[in-house]
Amino acid sequence: GEDVEQSLFLSVREGDSSVINCTYTDSSSTYLYWYKQEPGAGLQLLTYIFSNMDMKQDQRLTVLLNKKDKHLSLRIADTQTGDSAIYFCAERSDSSASKIIFGSGTRLSIRP
Amino acid sequence: DVKVTQSSRYLVKRTGEKVFLECVQDMDHENMFWYRQDPGLGLRLIYFSYDVKMKEKGDIPEGYSVSREKKERFSLILESASTNQTSMYLCASSLMDRRETQYFGPGTRLLVL
After folding, report:
1. DSSP symbols for B20-89
2. Do residues A59 and A75 lie in contact, with contact meaning Cβ atoms separated by under 8 Å?
3. Does B100 touch chain A (CB under 8 A)?
4. Which of A51, A49, A75, A50 shows the shortest CA–CA distance to A61?
């Protein structure tokens, strides 16, 4: 079945770049998402990419998609303390228009 | 701005109690979802609804039921709460268009004693 995997923890120094990685198994994925969850809050959509794109940039965020390897990454440039959160990778496939499959989330912590 | 609200941020219930979690969205979305979030497991879909009075099981429906009597409201019901249902419950909504993402409520943290 469909599966989305990501590492559970990432620690970076303030001001460095953070790279959060994700792999997925469904080759018919059409949309891939990154959500951010701050402590005590729900999920907030950060950015998304269509499966026919390789890269998308939005201010400090860069999403890279390697469709051949089914690998998605989120790069946060100049990481700030406000970027501390859990980041979820998610995918939607052609086979299931309404359902989105979420990864387990990567907890990003920032050290001074 | 899309707004998804959940009736409670925190709930404490006893084993065997009937529990209602309410979710309301104000953007006329067709789809509504209930997830539970547990550490290391990410979000798991319990039920979703794509129209009034319509519902479909997600990945972990056991021990839960849902109700969608009005388009804007989607309720999650725990008929007889158990300790393994202690979790964070997240509601989401989206338009039917497959290009549309899901918008989430703030979550309800439920503790079953």
Report:
1. EEEEEESS--SEEEEEEEETTTEEEEEEEESSTT--EE-S--TT-EEEEEETTEEEEEESS--GGG-EEE
2. no
3. no
4. A75
Q: Which of A8, A88, A91, A102 to mutate to test the interface with B (most CBs of B within 10 A)?
A: A102
Q: Which long-range contacts (CB under 8 A, 24 or more apart) does A59-66 make?
A: A61/A34, A63/A32, A63/A34, A65/A32
CB contact under 8 A, A48 and B43: no
Tell me how far apart the alpha carbons of residues A95 and A27 are, in angstroms, rounded to a whole number: 10
Chain A touched by B61 (CB under 8 Å): no
* Tens digits of residue pLDDT in A46-95: 999 988 889 999 999 999 999 999 999 999 999 999 999 999 999 887 66
* CA B62 to the chain's CA centroid: 14
B75-112 CB burial, b ≥16 within 10 A, e <16: bbebeebeeebbbbbbbbbbbeeeebbbbbbebbbbeb
Q: Which residues of A touch B88 (CB under 8 A)?
A: none
Q: Do residue B40 and residue A45 have CB atoms under 8 angstroms apart?
A: no
- The 10s digit of each residue's pLDDT in B28-83 is 999 999 999 998 888 999 999 999 999 999 989 999 999 999 999 999 999 999 99
